[in-house]
């Protein structure tokens, strides 16, 4: 079943790329596997997916040792500074950096472990919806400060759009994020590139691709609904 779901998602990505005249190679599918067991993740892995997204440190640690070493783990959820040390050498990219304090902690731990960590800046574009993310207006200033820290590399921007009935409603949000990344790119800040725009989830990844997404984070449409116990 997961296999069929994955095929549908991949077909939709292909279609969205064709419609917007984009190269499929420029869009990375991140399969968001939070709450899902390793057996199911392995099924998706066996279909060729190597990028997986998780939002809890403990869950990454639990799954990390049980699954193949060539998986690229993406930390997409809110990250507490006191937990950075556990994952800094295990994740491929951290999508949810929204403060200087968090950036400093990642830099410090990355330095200790002698790794370089690519990060994305989470921007709160749709103010009313999300608790996390730096304000749109403050993004450039935060990036200028993060750019000075060792062992982290700013690679782009990320946003979480609200859940809406009509995904088209989110196109303005995605478009604004892309505009911001173009602005920031134009500043030519050392150690900063805007090569990755992380936007689009199960409900709206096709719209996000049309607006320039470099990676889409898709959970439910691949793995089915999540069941949280308690
Ligand atoms: C859970 C989650 C997703 C995936 O959401 P779906 O609607 O299940 O595709 C994407 N991004 C973030 C940050 C998430 O927490």
Please give the alpha-carbon distance between the first and last residues.
26 Å
Weakly predicted, low-confidence segments: none
Count of DSSP-assigned helices: 9
- Give the strand content: 15-25%
Under CATH, the homologous superfamily reads Alanine racemase
Report the CATH architecture: Alpha-Beta Barrel
Mean pLDDT: 96
Number of domains: 1
Structure description:
With 230 residues, the chain is of the alpha/beta class. It has helices at residues 2-19, 38-46, 57-64, 84-87, 100-112, 139-146, 171-185, 205-210, 220-223, and strands spanning 28-32, 51-54, 72-75, 93-97, 117-124, 134-135, 152-158, 192-198, 215-218. Strands 1, 2, 3, 4, 5, 6, 7, 8 and 9 form a nine-stranded parallel beta sheet that branches. It is globular. The mean pLDDT is 96. It binds pyridoxal-5'-phosphate. The site of pyridoxal-5'-phosphate (PLP) has 13 residues, from strand 9 and helix 9.
Mind sketching the topology for me?
Elements: H1 2-19, E1 28-32, H2 38-46, E2 51-54, H3 57-64, E3 72-75, H4 84-87, E4 93-97, H5 100-112, E5 117-124, E6 134-135, H6 139-146, E7 152-158, H7 171-185, E8 192-198, H8 205-210, E9 215-218, H9 220-223
Parallel strand pairs: 1-2, 1-9, 2-3, 3-4, 4-5, 5-6, 5-7, 7-8
The structure holds pyridoxal-5'-phosphate.
Pyridoxal-5'-phosphate binds next to strand 9 and helix 9.
């Amino acid at each position: 079943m997961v296999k069929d779901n994955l095929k549908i998602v991949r077909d939709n990505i292909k279609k969205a790329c064709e419609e917007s005249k984009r190269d499929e190679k420029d869009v990375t599918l991140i399969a968001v596997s939070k709450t899902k067991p390793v057996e199911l993740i392995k099924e998706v892995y066996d279909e060729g997916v190597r990028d997986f997204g998780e939002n809890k440190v403990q869950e990454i640690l639990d799954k990390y040792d049980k699954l193949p070493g060539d998986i690229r783990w993406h930390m997409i959820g809110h990250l507490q500074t006191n937990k950075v040390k556990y994952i800094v050498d295990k994740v491929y990219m951290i999508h949810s950096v929204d403060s200087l304090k968090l950036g400093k902690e990642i830099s410090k731990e990355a330095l200790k472990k002698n790794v370089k960590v690519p990060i994305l800046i989470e921007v709160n574009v749709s103010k009313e919806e999300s608790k996390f993310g730096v304000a749109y207006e403050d993004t450039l200033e935060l990036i200028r400060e993060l750019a000075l820290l060792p062992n982290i590399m700013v690679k782009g921007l990320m946003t979480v759009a609200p859940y809406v009935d009509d995904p088209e409603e989110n196109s303005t949000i995605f478009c604004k994020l892309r505009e911001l990344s173009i602005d920031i790119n134009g500043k030519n800040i050392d150690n900063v590139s805007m090569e990755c725009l992380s936007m689009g989830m199960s409900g709206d990844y096709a719209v996000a691709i049309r607006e320039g997404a470099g990676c889409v984070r898709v959970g439910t449409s691949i793995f089915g609904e999540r069941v949280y116990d308690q």
